[in-house]
Known about the structure:
CATH superfamily of the largest domain: NadA-like
Helix content: 40-55%
Oligomer: single chain
Order of helices and strands: HEHEHEHEHEHEHEHEHEHEHEHEHH
Radius of gyration: 20 Å
CATH class of the largest domain: Alpha Beta
Number of domains: 3
Amino acid sequence: MSEANAPQQRADQAAGTIEALTKQIQQLKAQRDAVILAHYYVPPEVQDVADYVGDSFALAKLAVDLPQQTIVLCGVEFMGESAKLLNPEKRVLLPEPGADCPMAHMVRKADIDRVRAEHDDLAVVCYVNSTAEAKTWSDVCVTSSNAVKICHALPQRNILFIPDMNLGRYVAEQLPEKHVILNKGYCPRHVTINRQQVIDLEEAYPEAVVMAHPECPADVLDEADFIGSTKGMIEHATASDARDFIVCTVVGILRELERRNAGTSKRFHFPATTPRCVNMDQVTLPKVAACLRNPAPYEVHVSEELAPAARVTLERMLEYAAK
Length: 323
C-alpha cells in the first residue's frame, strides 16, 4: 500500500466493514423479530442501520406501539430500562450494557424525602434521564420535549425537579406560577458548552440562529434564539429559512440535521469544545450485531421490586403528554 493511497484504502476497508455489518444486522433482525431504535446521539452509522431514530420521548412512545417482540435500544442504560418498563413482555437488548448516563445517578432519596416533608402540596417530577430506582421515588416522568407541558398540567404548585437542575430551571422560567425546587444534577456533556463559545460563533456567523438544549447552563440559554429538545431543534432548523445554525447540544444530532436538510445550503456549527456523549459513542455496529447474535448477555432486566412503581411514572408521562 503506497503512502499516498493509504487513506483512501483504509476508508474503502471501513466502508466495506460497515456494509457487511449492516447486511448481517438486517439478517439477524429478521431472525429475531427485532426492531432497532436509536437515539440521535449515537454514532451516525448506528443511526443509519436503525429502523427508527429519535429523542428519548419519541423512542419511549414507539416502543409501546411496535409489534416486534425484540427491541434493540441503541442508547444508554436508562433508555433500555424505560423500554423494558413499558414493554415488560418483550425482550429489550442494549448493545453496550456499560453505556450509562452520569446525570441519571445525580439524585439522593434523602433529599427527596426532606423536600416531601417540607411541602404537603408537592409533585416529584423525574426527568426520564434517571435510574429505575429514582423513578420509584417520583410521581411522574418527563422529557425535555414535554417537561413544561406536564409540569403545567400538574395540580400541585410545588414541584421538585430531579435530577437535572438546568432543565428544571428552564421549566421554572416558563411556569412562574409554579414553585420549582431544583436538584443539583446536570448533564456532563451540555455543561461543557459555555456562553463565550456561543458568542465566538455568533461573531463568526452574525446571522446564525442559536439553538440550545435546555440541559445547557442558563447563560447559554440566554444566548439562544430557540430552546428545545433534540427533536425540536431538528424540526426548527428544517423549517427555518436561515443558512447558519449554532447548535448547542451533543454533536450526534448532526447526522439527522444534515439528512433532513440535504440539498440546502444550511450549515451547522458546534461550540469549540464539541459536546460528545462518550457513553453514546460506545454503541457501535459490531455491538449491535453481537447483541442480535447472542442476546442473553445484552438483555435488560428491571427488578420486580422496582418495576411496578417505576412503570407508573412513565405511563403517567405518556398520559399527560397525550392530553
